Amino acid sequence: MTPAYCFIILTYNEQQHLPRLLASIKGLNAPVFILDSGSEDDTIAIAQQAGAVILQHPFENHPKQWDFALKSFEIKTPWIICLDADQEVTPELKEKLVNFKDEDHLDIDGIYFNRKNFFKGHWIKHGGYYPFYLLKMIRYGVGHSDLNENMDHRFIVPGKTVVWKKGHILEENLKENQISFWIAKHNRYSDLLAHEEVERMQKLRLQTLKPSLLGSPDERTAWLKNLWWQLPRYVRPLLYFTYRMIFQLGILEGRTGVIFHFLQGFWFRLMVDVKIDEILKGEQKKEDKKTVAASPLRFVFTFLLLFLVFYYFNIAFFGITSPGKLYSPFLADNLNYIQGLRWVLLSCSAQILNWMGFTAIHNGTELLVVGKGTIVLIYSCLGLGLMSFFAAFVIAYPKKLKQKLIFLIAGVLTIQVLNITRFVLLALFWNKKASKIIDHHTVFNIILYIIIMISLYFWVTKNNQAPADQHA
């Protein structure tokens, strides 16, 4: 009787991992095919002892290696399960595979497995890393490797897919217990990803999948990638890391997990952005610099004028919405964006503190943390001066409107995310007696102005548009 599925495994010096994977699928009576990239350890001997069919092929990138594997092995099963050597099948998933029958899935082209990822022995279960679904089981002759990706490899099937939420594949690269290996590996990956993104700027590489936030796991990933490519470089790693740490609860991961999220979510993404600029260097037309050089006085005048307008408008509006001679009840009750901003900042701070296990409430102006004390958000806490400076510069600078809007929104959100982080830390650790020695408003403003100036520098000097379209 022909088995319902077979396994294809990619290897390169995997004597440390391959026995673990082979042991996890032992007893399934499924053929095993191994595509090796020129291992110099005992990987081949281990594969031969397990009775696997072995081919060797030089490695260029994961998508091309999988494409070669799917086209080169003599597959006789209706389904293929595609695994990396540092993965293994859990007993729960193995039980589902034991009971798998092709006749029960005739209308299905692909099956997503749920993955648990490990770093230095620690399960990464926050920061968007769990649950995490990978299309690992595909119908033979129907599914194929997505060659429009340079680093992230995925399989594409035209028909219906299902997600197996129960049962897992465990992924743990034991070589990464040495941080030097992890850094060297992701340094190579950052080269691949930077070249890929430049090619996408030049319209030489397109998405295979239709992006959809409500679609399959891979269609959702494609949608998020489209969003990522629209964000300004150097700002997006900070936004992504902040999102993973706060909104996806990466802060609860513990020391090892936080290190992972910093390296994978910030350091790696920042390296990609730096390398993109290195690739584009020399191809840039430097339109921004030429434009500014042609009319520097106009830019300076517009920037100063806008800054003064924004800055003093906020002060004036705060004055007429606060009790006093010029108090306007209508504006205070209906259009008070300053009070609205304060409420949003306090609500977000209180929610984060509650997620962290503290009891926090606010009344619109004060944040109370049970057992810690109270902080009061006055006008100078809101960052309106910082946002006025940032907005005036971005609006005055001669760039395309779309670039301005994206960078402006990302910058304002980043300022307020850092502001919320400050309020959470102040609520937990600030000693009011220390305010006589250290003015945390001044310290925060200095830090933020430094971040803003660095961000503006990279935004001004980065490529405004991709080089002229080329054709493959």
Automatic annotation (TrEMBL):
Q: Where in the cell is it found?
A: Cell membrane
Short name of any one Pfam family annotated for the protein: Glycos_transf_2
Entry keyword set: Cell membrane, Hydrolase, Membrane, Protease, Transmembrane, Transmembrane helix
The record's listing under CDD domains reads: Beta4Glucosyltransferase (cd02511)
Location of the Glycosyltransferase 2-like domain: 7-126
Q: Does the keyword Membrane apply?
A: yes
Which InterPro entries does the UniProt record give? Answer: Exo/Archaeosortase_dom, Exosortase, Glyco_trans_2-like, Nucleotide-diphossugar_trans
Topology in membrane? Multi-pass membrane protein
Mainly localized where? Answer: membrane
Membrane-spanning segments: 299-320, 341-361, 373-398, 405-430, 442-460
- Family designation: Belongs to the glycosyltransferase 2 family. WaaE/KdtX subfamily.
Q: What is this protein called?
A: Glycosyltransferase 2-like domain-containing protein
Per the UniProt record, the source organism is Mucilaginibacter dorajii
